[in-house]
Protein: Lipoprotein-releasing system ATP-binding protein LolD
Organism: Stieleria maiorica
Amino acid sequence: MPQHRSEPRSSQADDVPSPASDSPTRQSSRGGDVLIEAQGLGRHYDEGNVDALADASFCIRTGQYVAIVGKSGSGKTTLLNLIGGLDRPTRGELHYDGRPLDARSDLDRHRCRNVGFVFQSYYLLPNLTAAENVQVPMFEADYTPAERSARAKELLEQVGLSGREDHMPSQLSGGEAQRVAIARALANAPKLILADEPTGALDSETGDSILRLLEELNRTQAITLIVVTHDEAVAARADHRLRLADGRIVTP
Ligand SMILES: Nc1ncnc2c1ncn2[C@@H]1O[C@H](COP(=O)(O)OP(=O)(O)OP(=O)(O)O)[C@@H](O)[C@H]1O
């Protein structure tokens, strides 16, 4: 269980650099410039008086593949939600591409323009076709209807679902539904994909193909990939691991 509120301690990731040792302007052989920098990040819930996340400091560079790993309740989703602008920290600072993620307007823009989300349960809209689901985030950007339609077709092709444009979510397998969700995550050409237990609802073979698809996007398009998992085998595939226990980043 997470710790209740206490004085912040210094925290370390197992191999994700800390901001103090890694300035945002430096280059690294394992990634580009710093994309995400957290300093003393925390999320306290008054309800239950829980520090879901406490004193998290780390850097993630453009193009890196990072797993956030830890047991159930260790704070993985809390951290992912902060990075994605779905929630705001109660302590500390978070910068994306050198800019603070502070104001509500910054978070809204960040979510729509910078981040593609992939969730365990896909969250496809059941009354929309696969192509229409992929188009949903595009309404937040400046695409014409023709561009939206062409881009959705192209993205579905990219995730291996050519010819499935008009399928309803109920007509798709779990793996296919997750591929549609990945195409949707790519809709506005994000620099960052945040995937929360993306294989959690799939059998191991299908889950492996979904991870390979995400890894290919990371490798070929330099999309920074952050995967939340409780599965050590999934975490081992990433280049770096941010390991959480009781809301704190720990060394292995
Ligand atoms: N809205 C909330 N209100 C109060 N406590 C919360 C809330 N959301 C999360 N928590 C608590 O914060 C802690 C961390 O939750 P979080 O969902 O981040 O963990 P997790 O590592 O993602 O767990 P899991 O692997 O089970 O999804 C848990 O103890 C949880 O009960």
Remarks:
- The first strand starts at residue 34 and ends at 45.
- The radius of gyration is 18 Å.
